[in-house]
Amino acid sequence: MTPPSDVVVVGGGAIGCAIARELAGRGLAVTLLERGEPGGEASWAAAGLLSPQSDAREPGPFFDLCLESRSLYPEWSRELEEETEIAVGYRAIGILRCAMSEAERESLRTRTLWQRKAGLPLEERTTRELSSWLPGLLSPRVAGGVLFPEDGVVDSRMLTRSLAVSAARRGVRLLPGMEARGCLVERGVCRGVATATEAFPADRVVDATGAWAAFDPAWRAAAPVTPVRGQIVRLWPEGRPLPAVVEAEDVYLVPRRDGKVLAGATSERVGFRKAVTAEAVRSLTEAAIRLVPSLSEARFTAAWSGLRPGTPDGRPILGEAPGLPGLVFAAGHYRNGILLAPVTARLVADCVMETGRRDLSPFSPDRFAASPPESAGRRPGQFG
Fold first, then answer.
1. What CATH number should be reported for the domain whose range is 226-310?
2. b (16+ CB within 10 A) / e for 83-110
3. pTM value?
């Protein structure tokens, strides 16, 4: 058995690395276990959208959480770049949501009315205004749109790399290739994590394993996270680059600094089958060309997929596991793991250190658990 840590974080994606980094920055001894390589799963596959406003359907605690996390990004990304000298690609370039018909335009106007009333920044654009701003780029079918100027993007791969480097420099013990099999439970309290070959004792455990959040069947009811496959196509067009993210109902187009464009993304419930399919490549490419016809001449450079961690209500799971003190969830972020990484790191660190006063009830695992995990019958140190 290895020497005990204050906290073991399980999962080395953007969420897990951000939490480990935050905890180490607060003076705790942290070990991070990752089943593969840090940032090698959903964080690697993500397009890096920071889109609380353009994605929102209604106000509420989840929207507020997303807005708060977006507001943290300028300073948070600057600190990461200063600590690691790794450019994370944060850009508040705005997201343009396009309507492909007059009916869609009216629906979009209705859908964003509550944001206007709340005084949130957004700009309705007519067809003529869009033609002036993006001459020759958008399809003539576009009937108008709404620009969310404070939404933006980050390079998710570089971000996660920077988070891992920063965590290590703050003293986090990063252990790739370590797949957690269950919690060590002593007298009904989580006291660490076990892999197939080794035990890692700790005062607290944070489950940030994404689609694998229920790696211990004992708390499956409290963490009903299921994988949702998302596929992305990367194109390399010639000519004028997109000045903002451009999206419609069936596709989003994310411009990279090097001129490439990401077209995403599918949403498929196919279990843990991470694959790229011909149908997805075809449908995403066709949707991209419908929105920006000049992409028909773009070079295809790559396609990939990842497994998002979905929950029944689409909200993340944050907080202590019901019936198992010592285990804290940071799971189920679905499409918003990159966006929510900075605020999740702060809130989960507060929870671990019992210093926060935030009401996490909208995101608590209690909302799913009908009964506490089956830990009472375990022997000290046993895991399931």
1. 3.30.9.10
2. bbebebbbbbbbbbbbbbeeebbeebee
3. 0.93
